[in-house]
Amino acid sequence: MRTAIFVLAFSVLSLELAHAGGRPELVNAQEVALDQIYAITIRYRSDDIILLRHDSDTLVIREYMSTNNSDLFAVITRSGNELVVTGGHRPVTFGAFRTRIEISIPASNRSIAISSSSGDIVASGEHSASAFHIESSSGRVVANSVTADSVSIGSASGRITANSLTASRVNIESSSGRIAVGSITAERTTIESSSGGIALGIINGDVSVRSASGNIELDMAGGAVDISSSSGRVRGTLAGTAGDVSIVTTSGGVTLNLPQSLPFNFSSRSSSGSLHTPFDERLFRPLTDRHSAQGVIRNGASEDDIQRSIDIRTGSGSIRVNWVN
Prior knowledge:
- By secondary structure, this protein is mainly β.
- Helices cover 6% and strands 56% of the residues.
- 30% of the residues are buried.
């Protein structure tokens, strides 16, 4: 008898888990008007979130789940001029519960904030807002074609991929994960990674990059550049519009590509590494410090017209400067 009861209970539990672990299906769809709403906040705990763009002045949420239970549905509240979407109750299962959240919003001058504790966040389509903030504690973050006064993207332990960001200020931060960015147009861009490489495409505007452990690559910089790497090499290319450049590595070499017509004041120091430039004959090396070099690289400009400085310092890595057309 006890064996029969155990078998029956086990069978019921297995059926429940099988149903919970099935393919997520649309179980909840809601549409909310956004009149007099100036801020949208979306918070989930363990769900993948896909942000979509539509033209209606409403927020549309579609929740796909492997279990159809109204206790699991999002809670949507309005507090003054802020709309808050919070994920519903999540069952304690053996990892079988599966979800996907799709949220559609219009382009506007509202502020947008999206977070997930342990899920991916993907912003798909073109989005515009006054402020755009997305963050995942443990998940991948993707943001493409975003225009806002300020853009902030973060992941504690996940890869960040972004492209076509336009803002006055952009901040991207990953505690443990690679950062890959296609293009950014901003007055000021700040990018930080505690543990992970950083690959940047075209950055229009001033950029500050910090990596505690990982290589940094910058395809093209059109403004001032400030790069620091504790453990990793740095490779970068400057546009003719680039401003002052400061590159510091504790353990890693530096390769910098410059337009041959670029005039600048140059200084460098490597504690235990060589220096190679196409203008070695124009550099001065102090007798008291053979590890450093400096010089004025006019490239046709008068010395009074040179406003740009390039300073490169390495602890244990070589420095190489190349001309590019």
